[in-house]
Amino acid sequence: MRKDETKTEGRSSRSVKELLSIAHVSLEEEDYRSSVFQFLNILKSDPNCAVARFGLGDAYFGLADYENAESTYRLGLEIFPRNSDGLFGLAATLRVIESYDEAIEFYERGFDVEPSRTAAYWELAYSREMTGDKIGAERAYRMCLEKDPNHGMAKHLLAAMLGTTTDRAPDDYVRDLFDDYADSFEEDLLNDLNYVVPDLIGKELKKLTKPLNRQKIRCFSSALDLGCGTGLVSEAIKGLVTKIDGVDLSEKMVKVALEHQRYDNIYLQEMTAFLLDKTVGKPKYDLIVCGDALVYLGDLRSVFKGVSQRLSGKGVFCFSVEKLRSGSFSLCPTGRYAHSDGYIRDLSRNFGFELLAARDIVPRMDDALKIRGRLYLLSPNDKS
Q1: Lowest-pLDDT range, 36-40, 183-187, 360-364?
Q2: What does the alpha-carbon distance between residue 174 and residue 319 come to, in Å, rounded to a whole number?
Q3: Paired residues of 376 in beta bridges
Q4: Could you confirm whether domain 179-380 is CATH 3.40.50.150?
Q5: Burial 129-162 (b: 16+ CB within 10 A, else e)
Q6: What is the CATH T-level fold of the domain 3-162, as seen in this structure?
């Protein structure tokens, strides 16, 4: 940032610095609405304050207001065309709204100014991949990994693009993916992707419940929702459970679930780590559900082992997977894993589960294409 980029008219330099500091604290704390208000106040005094202009763009981006984010970044770049924050901010906005060709242009302009912006390399790589430039995408993914060998997003997306199946997606890939997605998660899934897994789980579980009399339906006394996200599965089964806990590794998804008060307890933890945690006092559950979260794991042995330890003797394990015709599991170009029916049945036998039900489903749509999946209900067999 150059000195002239904070210059204002009508306010002392010190006053502007203080206001910028306050606005950036709001931005870092993800209080985006406050930061929008604060940056706008600064820009009233000087529309040419680049730091405030690009900070305002970041705040709009945080609110998923991509129209205002784009126009704000563009206006700032008219004044300071080589500001790397503005260039990368506009590039990221264009990537999110799927204007990949123009996003690539601004990523490349950003790297001309600041070639060390490691995280932006995977974003450039993804944009290139979406335009069909797999050679350029691979080069950018590898550049990101050269600078940060443990970068989960670049590592996983490169493997998916090259067709290299790994055992699981890195935790930071899943965390970052859903942290970025949390604010628009439910609207996008339900309206754009026609996501129906929670409803399908609810319908299957209702088939298992038996009326005790004409007024009441037998409920599960305790349930655990693995990879619970914002709580869509909880909403679908709330009439069938007395108490329900959730576990998810995305802090922002958990925050949304807490705001909606969809769980009795919610744990910020990776689900297999939670299941295998041997802390004294960890409860067992009558029902464990997992709606569309196993797609970020390839090898499911740890999940089945953990569920076998945390499920009560007459309990039910209900989950969905994306369908693989043969083999065991495979990492798809989407970055999600698919599992074969034979693999799930083998795991069920090996970990002492009886198959109660299994059926083909269409969990969601992807660019008007039906995603093929399977829904399973298991229970510990009498010998386990």
Answers
A1: 183-187
A2: 18
A3: 319, 358
A4: yes
A5: beeebeebbbebbebbbeeeeebbbbbbbbbbbe
A6: 1.25.40
